[in-house]
């Protein structure tokens, strides 16, 4: 970033941590080892936030519990801690980062693909082609939302954004919000206050980000 011979810019793609947690749980078997590595990588000198539900690790799969889900949620503490540090640096950028960092929310990309794509291309001084705009529009206007992990396909943007609200239990959602409150506040992801609020899909839970 400090090399004067390079014109390097950073585009940071972010997503609602609750959606990230939902994806990690849905991919529990494929990511269990990775989740364990993430959890073990945390700084042992930093006080670990307790689970809101102390018995969650022993919960059955029917209730969304089980060891793999426990580790998937535990990994979110480490992921969000790292994200918070990155966002704080971006919020108060040093000279070498000034004007060279852009955060792009996944939600903005799928709801307004053309507008967001043009902003990203403009940030790096490139012109977006009509073919790329068509591709972005098609990928966010699919017939549904795949339930299989690691599948790249055209998806319905509305379903993709709200999938976590029906996939996660209210307890899981509050756990992620507890771990990720700082990055969520900076990125404009509103916390929920009740199970009814989660299920009310007419409420977007998005506001203007601070970055």
UniProtKB/TrEMBL annotation:
Keywords: Transferase. Residues 6-187 form the Sulfotransferase domain. It is an enzyme of class 2 (transferase). InterPro entries: Gal/GlcNAc/GalNAc_ST, P-loop_NTPase, Sulfotransferase_dom. The keyword Ligase does not apply. It comes from the Eukaryota. Its EC number is 2.8.2.-. Signal peptide: none annotated. One of its GO terms (molecular function) is N-acetylglucosamine 6-O-sulfotransferase activity. Gene3D superfamilies: P-loop containing nucleotide triphosphate hydrolases. GO terms for biological process: N-acetylglucosamine metabolic process; sulfur compound metabolic process. Pfam families: Sulfotransfer_1. Belongs to the sulfotransferase 1 family. PANTHER family: CARBOHYDRATE SULFOTRANSFERASE (PTHR10704), CARBOHYDRATE SULFOTRANSFERASE 2 (PTHR10704:SF3). This is Sulfotransferase. It comes from Catharus fuscescens.
């Amino acid at each position: 970033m400090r090399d004067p011979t390079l014109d390097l810019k950073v585009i940071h793609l972010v997503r609602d941590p609750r959606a990230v947690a939902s994806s990690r749980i849905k991919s529990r078997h494929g990511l269990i080892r990775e989740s364990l590595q993430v959890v073990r990588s945390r700084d042992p000198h930093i006080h670990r936030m307790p689970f809101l539900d102390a018995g969650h690790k022993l919960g059955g799969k029917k209730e969304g519990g089980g060891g793999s889900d426990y580790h998937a949620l535990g990994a979110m503490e480490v992921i969000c801690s790292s994200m918070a540090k990155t966002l704080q640096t971006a919020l108060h950028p040093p000279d070498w980062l000034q004007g060279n960092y852009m955060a792009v929310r996944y939600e903005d990309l799928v709801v307004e693909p053309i507008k967001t794509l043009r902003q990203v291309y403009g940030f790096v001084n490139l012109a977006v082609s009509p073919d790329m705009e068509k591709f972005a529009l098609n990928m966010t206007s699919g017939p549904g939302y795949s339930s299989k992990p690691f599948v790249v396909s055209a998806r319905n943007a509305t379903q993709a954004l709200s999938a976590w609200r029906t996939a996660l239990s209210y307890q899981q959602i509050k756990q992620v919000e507890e771990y990720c409150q700082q990055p969520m506040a900076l990125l404009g992801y509103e916390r929920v206050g009740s199970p009814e609020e989660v299920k009310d899909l007419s409420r977007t839970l998005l506001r203007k980000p601070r970055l």
